[in-house]
Amino acid sequence: MLKLSDVQTFYGNIKALKGISIEIEQGEIVTLIGANGAGKTTTLMSISGIVPTRAGDISFEGRSITRMTPNDIVSLGICHVPEGRRIFPYLSVLENLDMGAFLRNDRSEVAKDLEYVLDLFPILAQRRHQAGGTLSGGEQQMLAISRALMARPRLLLLDEPSLGLAPLVVKRIFEIIEKINAENNTTIFLVEQNANLALKVAHRGYVMENGYITLSDKSRHLLANEDIRKAYLGI
Ligand code: ATP
User: How many CB atoms lie within 10 A of CB 57?
Assistant: First the structure.
């Protein structure tokens, strides 16, 4: 579904991605783990067209998206939930969700999806008229994921959904990530520093170090890998 071939991305003279290759099949949950500054966020921003790539190719369902604008990439069905959530703080929960559907014209299907996300996260239904900025961190993360789902993505890019959240909230969010994948066959590319959790929900994982992919395997193999356990799982 998604293929990155030898992608290089720079910030000025800083080479953040040094030629990475990643493949994701339709229906998979794939995670990208790695330390701070490894290049995980840059990988997602390269896919969604927010940061231009300098070399290599990114294709989605067989078509190159390397030079497309972020808007065109969203309209193909790729939705990015950025690190730090970035919801609209002065808009209500419902207005935030409506923004997620701004490219869609199928109003009756949009209404169904709204019901679906409010069912996934009942707390958002309770707070539907509250301004986004007044929600807790966990609720804002739920809103950010729900807003992305309102676009009915085929590929969901999630950047550090666990960041700064209490363990119980993180557990709930990861359960929902698995549910979204299982119920809608939505393909998910999950960037996480919490490697342990990420590898437990993902089918496969890639390990990134210093702008390179250094390892990729089925999640259960990575969870059992001695080097990975020492470096990323704190075991
Ligand atoms: P984190 O978990 O801290 O977000 P990451 O693995 O997502 O880390 P990136 O944020 O992709 O890593 O950063 C990759 C490299 O690019 C780092 O060396 C970082 O300092 C550099 N970098 C990221 N954003 C910029 C920017 N806007 N300008 C210059 N350098 C940047």
Answer: 15
Using one digit for the tens of pLDDT, what is the confidence trace for 158-210? Answer: 999 998 888 999 999 999 999 999 998 999 999 998 899 999 999 999 999 99
Q: How far is the CA of 94 from the centre of ligand 1 (A)?
A: 32
> What pLDDT, in 10s, does the model give residues 121-158?
999 999 999 999 999 999 999 999 999 999 999 999 99
CATH of 1-68+187-235, one of 3.10.350.10, 3.40.50.300, 3.40.640.10, 3.30.70.260: 3.40.50.300
| Calpha distance 56→73 (Å, rounded) | 17
50: closest CA among 103, 88, 11?
11
Overall pTM > 0.90: yes
**Contact at 8 Å (CB) between 112 and 120?**
no
**Ligand 1 within 6 A of CB of 85:** no
Q: Is the CB of 122 under 6 A from ligand 1?
A: no
Q: Which ligand 1 atom minimizes the distance to the CA of 14?
A: 30
Query: In terms of residues, how long is the chain?
Result: 235
Ligand 1 nearest-atom number relative to CA 45:
11
CA of 39 to the centre of ligand 1 (A): 6
